[in-house]
């Protein structure tokens, strides 16, 4: 038995963990949309502050949240570099052949990098605080209206939750089979690509055999209990919105409002801040 | 030649919320020729422990010396894992799930091939291994492993390990999921293999009765530590302690204890059902010693029908 959970779920039992998963999914979508409306550095500061608050409330180490950016670090740097070299606006700082580094380019590159990293950190807060099972439940519940246009929502949710449920089992199985073949002298993680792929066969074949066997057994077990996905099915854990979700919603609403205020009413708060400080200096 | 384990510690998922301290300073010396039984709860650390003997887990702290192959936590010093895996044969739980080749002979050859032996030697070993586990080489060598029966598959999987001719054979729950007859066969196979091929055998089992039948020494794991390390015949003296950590007591020990509670003292260290039978017969004979000689019961004339109690012959179903 290795790590029973997978993905990023980080249990702390905080209030954020105990929020209704549907609310968390909706908040995440709101967050993702809102971050594309951020137009000033002041706006990014608000986003960062928001994330820090969520982080603090969920008791997840800031280190872990920042680590989640690592996966997209390459994309982030790549877009930043492209932006710096080819985005042409504002004062020219450096020019050579077709490459022009401008003040506007640097500004845009920084904002883009901030946007991508904050986006990833924000969405990973969802996976840090919500188990995959809660997520499927939430998605099923949120997709319910699609039932009226004959989308088999429950089946989709069942497929999703079975798939999720199988992942830890299969990982466990892979681990075991790998160990067993290693004990027989298989060298799984050495050699070139072709050799590596060939070395994976003794693991993959038993893994497929066992996956098919498990699927078969599960199908039989479902059949034996006369399982079918009718409307009358009830749930053991019924999702209910509570006052906690309302408080969280108000918090998110304030955040969204601040960002939109900044974009449409102030048209970027940065210039006021700059003015304020130059005024102080003068 | 010995296996020496010194102060072995192991932690799963260190520095995460899932952290679990699986081994807490385990010390153990296993002599060549030992028939060691390991018992313990799920999560007691017994599986983690045996994985280390085969170099399947990286050493975190401590020291292991398997027949002069040394394992240390130091990353720079590479241990000779290939030699180690040729020395220690590891049969996992449900070993038939690791079969993958299209013929039995090829599957059994996987281990020896990985050891870098030449083709003739591999073929020779495959033939001997298949015969050692009690299967007909000519009949079975070209069949697909997936079309064999459960018991046969398990034998083929064990043959795959035996073909590497390990000096130490480790088996994790070798009889799991088999019917009583299949269990009986695998158990006598293990005794046979110890004689013919691997002189040192370590068996993990949930079933204490099973272990008492063949092991000469028993190690009890509890909560990542070794709770007892005893010669088999002393185990019964600790029946109450075993019971207190929720482990089963061998049936023979339980019966002997019940008899004792009712005032019938049996002599000798009773661990296996064989011991129990012998002791009961001896006690009976002693009690009736004054009577005529004919009334004395000769132990050897008995077959109580207890599986394996009187060494039933092995044979194919």
Query: How many distinct beta strands of chain B?
Result: 10
Number of helices of chain A: 10
Rg value of chain A:
25 Å
Number of strands of chain A: 2
Structure classification of chain B: alpha/beta
Tally of alpha and pi helices of chain B: 11
Largest sheet of chain A: 2 strands, antiparallel
Order of helices and strands of chain A: HHHHEEHHHHHH
The overall average pLDDT of chain B, rounded, is 84
Describe the oligomeric state of these chains in a short phrase: heterodimer
- List the chains of the largest interface with their residue counts: A-B, 25 and 28 residues
Distance between the termini of chain A: 67 Å
As laid out across the biggest beta sheet of chain A, the strand order is 1-2
Distance between the termini of chain B: 39 Å
Helical proportion of chain A, percent range: 55-70%
What can you tell me about this protein's structure?
The complex is a heterodimer of chains A (282) and B (317). Chain A has a domain at 9-152 and 241-282. Chain A contains 10 helices and 2 strands, in the order ααααββαααααα. Chain A has helices at 21-35, 41-58, 62-67, 73-86, 103-129, 132-143, 153-183, 193-224, 243-265, 270-281; strands spanning 92-96, 99-102. Chain A has a two-stranded antiparallel ribbon. In chain A, helix 2 packs parallel to helix 5. In chain B, 38% of the residues are buried. In chain B, helix 3 packs parallel to helix 6 and helix 4 (119-132) packs across helix 6 (150-162). Chain B contains 11 helices and 10 strands. Helix content of chain B is 36%, strand content 21%. Classes of the chains: A mainly alpha (282), B alpha/beta (317). The A-B interface holds A 1-5, 10-12, 176-177, 179-187, 201-202, 205-206, 209-210 and B 12-13, 16-18, 43, 51, 54, 56, 82, 85-86, 89-90, 92, 95, 97-100, 110-111, 114-115, 146, 160-161, 164.
Tags for this entry?
heterodimer, A: 282 residues, mainly alpha, two-stranded antiparallel ribbon, 10 helices, 2 strands, globular, disordered N terminus, B: 317 residues, alpha/beta, six-stranded mixed sheet, four-stranded antiparallel sheet
């Amino acid at each position: 038995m290795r790590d029973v959970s997978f993905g990023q779920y980080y249990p702390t039992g905080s209030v954020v963990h105990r929020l209704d998963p549907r609310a968390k999914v909706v908040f995440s979508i709101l967050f993702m949309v809102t971050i594309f409306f951020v137009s000033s550095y002041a706006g990014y500061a608000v986003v960062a502050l928001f994330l820090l608050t969520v982080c603090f409330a969920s008791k997840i180490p800031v280190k872990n949240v920042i680590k989640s950016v690592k996966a997209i670090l390459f994309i982030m740097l790549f877009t930043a570099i492209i932006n710096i070299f080819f985005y042409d606006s504002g004062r020219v700082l450096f020019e050579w052949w077709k490459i022009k580094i401008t003040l506007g380019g640097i500004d845009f590159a920084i904002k883009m990098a901030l946007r991508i990293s904050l986006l990833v950190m924000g969405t990973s807060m969802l996976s840090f605080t919500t188990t995959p099972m809660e997520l499927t439940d939430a998605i099923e519940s949120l997709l319910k209206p699609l039932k009226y246009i004959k989308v088999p929502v429950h089946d989709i949710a069942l497929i999703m939750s079975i798939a999720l449920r199988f992942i830890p089992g299969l990982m466990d199985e892979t681990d075991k089979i790998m160990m067993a073949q290693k004990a027989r002298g298989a060298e799984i993680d050495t050699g070139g690509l072709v050799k590596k792929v060939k070395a994976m066969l003794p693991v993959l074949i038993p893994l497929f055999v066992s996956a098919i066997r498990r699927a078969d057994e599960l199908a039989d077990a479902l059949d034996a209990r006369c399982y079918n996905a009718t409307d009358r099915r009830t749930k053991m854990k019924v999702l209910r919105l509570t006052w906690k979700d309302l408080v969280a919603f108000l918090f998110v609403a304030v955040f969204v409002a601040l960002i939109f205020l900044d974009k449409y009413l102030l048209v970027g708060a940065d210039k006021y801040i700059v003015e304020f400080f130059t005024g102080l200096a003068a | 030649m010995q296996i020496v384990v010194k102060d072995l510690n192991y932690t799963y998922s260190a520095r995460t919320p899932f952290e679990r301290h699986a081994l807490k300073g385990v010390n153990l010396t296993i002599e060549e020729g030992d028939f060691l039984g390991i018992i313990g709860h799920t999560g007691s650390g017994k599986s983690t422990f045996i994985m280390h003997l085969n170099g399947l887990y990286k050493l975190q702290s401590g020291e292991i010396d398997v027949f002069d192959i040394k394992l240390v936590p130091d990353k720079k010093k590479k241990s000779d894992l290939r030699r180690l895996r040729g020395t220690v044969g590891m049969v996992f739980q449900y070993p038939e799930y690791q079969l993958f080749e299209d013929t039995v002979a090829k599957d059994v050859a996987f281990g020896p091939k990985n050891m870098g032996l030449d083709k003739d030697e591999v073929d020779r070993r495959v033939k001997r291994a298949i015969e050692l586990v009690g299967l007909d080489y000519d009949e079975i060598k070209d069949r697909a492993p997936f079309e064999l029966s459960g018991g046969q598959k398990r034998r083929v999987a064990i043959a795959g390990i035996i073909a590497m001719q390990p000096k130490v054979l480790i088996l994790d729950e070798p009889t799991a999921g088999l019917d009583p007859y299949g269990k009986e066969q695998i158990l006598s196979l293990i005794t046979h293999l110890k004689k013919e091929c691997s002189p040192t055998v370590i068996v993990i089992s949930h079933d204490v009765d099973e272990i008492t039948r063949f092991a000469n020494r028993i190690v009890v794991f509890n909560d990542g530590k070794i709770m007892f390390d005893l010669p088999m015949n002393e185990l019964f003296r600790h029946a109450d302690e075993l019971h207190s950590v929720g482990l089963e007591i061998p049936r023979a020990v339980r019966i002997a204890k019940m008899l004792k509670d009712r005032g019938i003292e049996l002599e000798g260290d009773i661990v296996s059902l064989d011991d129990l039978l012998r002791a009961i017969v001896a006690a009976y004979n002693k009690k009736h010693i004054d009577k005529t000689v004919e009334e004395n019961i000769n132990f050897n004339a008995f077959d109580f029908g207890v599986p394996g109690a009187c060494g039933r012959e092995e044979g194919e179903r």
